[in-house]
Design brief:
Blueprint lengths: L2 H12 L5 H13 L4 H14 L10 H12 L11 H9 L2 H14 L7 H16 L1 H11 L3 H11 L4 E6 L5 E7 L4 E7 L8 E9 L2 E8 L5 E5 L9 E8 L14 E3 L3
Antiparallel strand pairs: 1-2, 2-3, 3-6, 4-5, 4-7, 7-8
Helix pairs in contact: 1-2, 1-3, 4-7, 5-6, 7-8
Organism: Microbacterium aurugineum
InterPro entries: Anti-sigma-K/W_factor, Anti_sigma_zinc_sf, RskA_C
Membrane topology: Single-pass membrane protein
Length: 264
Amino acid sequence: MNEKDFVELAAGAALHSLSADDERRYLAALAEHPEWEDTVDEDAATAASLADPVEPVTAPAHIRSALLAQIADLPQDGGTRSDPDATSAITDAPVATQSDAIDARAEQKPKQRRWTRSVFALAACLAVLVGVGIGAVALNQQLNPPASVVALQEIEAAGDAEQATVALDDGGSATAHWSASVGKAVLVADGIPTPAEGETYELWFVRGDAPVSAGVFDVDGGDATALLTGEMQAGDAIAVTVEQAGGSPTGQPTTDPVIVIPTA
């Protein structure tokens, strides 16, 4: 047995998932190669860490489903998937050649499964990331980034991407990103104060003297990335006002803008 085969068995042993035959092969290899004990210790430590108590946190169902889907997609027959053409060839072959075809396929089939360690790693990710709240949040953000982040990435990748930045009174900054070809605009604010309870920030496209509401947004620790709703037109300025929670009840600004970014 080579070391690569042993690594697979060691992962299975740490998870207590070896068959009786694989268990015998694993113990025999370990007795023959004591220098591989480090691999056993590392896998045992990893498996033990999965059992460490953590405060239960219910992660979004799609996170668990996404990881389990990856596990389910791993080949269960030594890293190869069934080949319908090959199966058909054996079935349709003359009787005299069927045994030769079967023997050929048997020779090509790996003797040792190669998916144990992948399952080991994915199981660790599932247990640790879902079991720890902050990990679940981070994974959720990676699997499902906010629409504003997706829009910002689309704009930055566009050939006609443009941006304009203004300084805020409190020392922060606000940058408008837009692209005519993408048809979207995003405001990124850094160091913007959190609005008072019962208030929110509202975005506006300002066309001449006519403001058009472009949605409201929240602030997280002084930072905000907000996708403006509606269609931006050439020459529009982007403004932000402080309004009551939910946005202006009149559809028009009720306060002076705290941010104004010209785009022309």
